[in-house]
């Protein structure tokens, strides 16, 4: 963020002195300053990372009863990162990724569906969150894609997401989420694992599972009014 700030101030000073008032540099300065402003806003948000599994009952309960209401009620005050992988394993055999998931092949596919949703650039972040929350609220998250896409008016994305989840792209995405999960712990001792502000704390984990709202209110730099 410091680099963005220095470059932003430098270009603004140049433009102000009328030494380089070109469209290119004006646009570049605008991009840098926008990035700086976004980073500042993000710094004040409570960062919530959730490492979970598509068919894990505890993951489903947490996302539906804890994460969903917090994300909706604290909109703008939290930044959520979702990592669908959990206690799975991944290894390359003959150049192809092989996965073993805690709740079987259906969970591997369900994880891939959510990985493809989260990496779909045509979807807004709000759509992604609503889709994941919808999927995890269904009895069979691995089989509820079309239902949830219909709820957010994104049914046209169905074929693309299914192709992704069933092919090499889904394999690569899930493997990358596996690598991120393994950096936290291999294997995770509990799913979902919840990390607040990029640092794991067992006491916070224990509270967040049943009272995520309380955790957010306690650690927030700028206390949301809802607290």
From TrEMBL:
Top-level division of the source organism's lineage: Eukaryota
GO MF term list: oxidoreductase activity, acting on a sulfur group of donors, disulfide as acceptor
Protein name: Gamma-interferon-inducible lysosomal thiol reductase-like isoform X1
Location in or out of the cell: Secreted
Protein family per UniProt: Belongs to the GILT family.
Record key words, sorted: Glycoprotein, Secreted, Signal
Organism: Papilio xuthus
GO CC annotation terms, alphabetical: extracellular region
